[in-house]
Amino acid sequence: MHLPDLPPDLRFERLPRDEAALRFAFEAKRAAMGPYIIERWGWDETLQMRLHADRFRDKPFHRVLHDGKAVGTVSLMCLDDCARFGEFYLFPEFQRHGVGSRILRHCLDIADALTLPVRLEYLKWNPVGSLYRRHGFAVTGETDIHWLMERPPTSPMPLPRLPGP
């Protein structure tokens, strides 16, 4: 799926299926998720790269650029019954400054325009859940390690009534 840019300062570049793009996406994952993975399992580079390569092959990854600087990755896939949001990794220096909220809101607006609910999952001990809850997501299930969340599409804004007969 194509992600349109979010003027004036956010661009989304679809990553090609090549080694350099895979490495960039992996480094974004390591920077954003590494501390949460290490907390539970340590960091097994071979395992993490294998898991990441599988996702990279199966999902559309986008490089997120803020004012021309690469700040992380995101994936938004439109399926028959929902939009899947994921692979949302921001380098730590860009976290907690509103960039993530703007990216998420942009993806939610796209799903709303398609009247699709948005589904995602995240590690139970990752504090990103508060971001998702602030944007209308609710827990719909769980695995041993993930919360599964969904946000229904919002209704389009009603058009104002015009005076007249």
SS-based class = alpha+beta
CATH C-level category:
Alpha Beta
Judging by the overall fold, what is the CATH architecture?
Answer: 3-Layer(aba) Sandwich
| Fourth-level CATH superfamily | Gcn5-related N-acetyltransferase (GNAT)
Number of folding domains?
Answer: 1
Q: What is the strand arrangement across the widest sheet?
A: 1-2-3-4-5-7-6
Shape: globular
Strand content: 25-35%
The total count of strands amounts to 7
Largest sheet: 7 strands, mixed
CATH names the topology as Aminopeptidase
Distance between the termini: 44 Å
Mean pLDDT: 94
Order of helices and strands: EHHEEEHEHEE
Considering DSSP H and I runs of 4 or more, what fraction of the residues is helical?
A: 25-40%
Rg over CA atoms: 17 Å
Word description of this protein:
This protein is α+β, with helices and mostly antiparallel strands. The protein has a single domain, classed as Aminopeptidase, CATH 3.40.630. It has helices spanning 19-41, 45-58, 99-113, 129-134, and strands spanning 10-14, 62-66, 69-78, 83-90, 118-123, 138-142, 146-151. The longest helix is centred in the first third of the chain and has 23 residues, at 19-41. The protein is globular. The protein has a seven-stranded mixed β-sheet with strand order 1-2-3-4-5-7-6.
Which keywords apply here?
single chain, 165 residues, alpha+beta, Aminopeptidase, 7 strands, 35% helix, globular
SSE blueprint:
Elements lengths: L9 E5 L4 H23 L3 H14 L3 E5 L2 E10 L4 E8 L8 H15 L4 E6 L5 H6 L3 E5 L3 E6 L14
Parallel strand pairs: 4-5
Antiparallel strand pairs: 1-2, 2-3, 3-4, 5-7, 6-7
Helix pairs in contact: 1-2
